[in-house]
Amino acid sequence: MKHSMENFFNWIMKPIPHEEVTVWFNMNNIYHEKIELFSDIFKSLDFLIQSTYLGGDSSETTIKLNSEDKIAHFNWCWNKIIKDFSMENTIINPDGEHKDYLLDFYIETFYKPTNLPKEENIANFIESIFNVGDSFTKSDLDILTQIYRIMDKNVY
To answer: Any idea where the domains of the chain sit in the sequence?
Structure first.
């Protein structure tokens, strides 16, 4: 049991040497330019979701939205991002597992009521996953690789 806990701890916390990250990127056909593009998509969507959302649970001036309203808000933001990026000659498929992934991500991290500081945590997560200048853990690389593969199939 001790050995498996140590492996888990290393997967979550131990930084991987930069040379090994480079090998990982090469083995998985991960390109820095696409990481930057996917990061821009995530950051743009995050900014739009957070800056236009009228719901919330922290004050009496916020509006209570039901699940359908939250999905409609996400869809409006998603469609706006697709339109904005298309003006820059970047085509994003409107539907697919990338949209499902992002919708699930925002339902779980942003739209659910919680007392945690959502905005800062989401921004920190996006920055940590897509910042190739920082060190990566195995967990970070697994998440980045999963997101990269999903986005790479749906963004041109």
So the answer is: 31-152
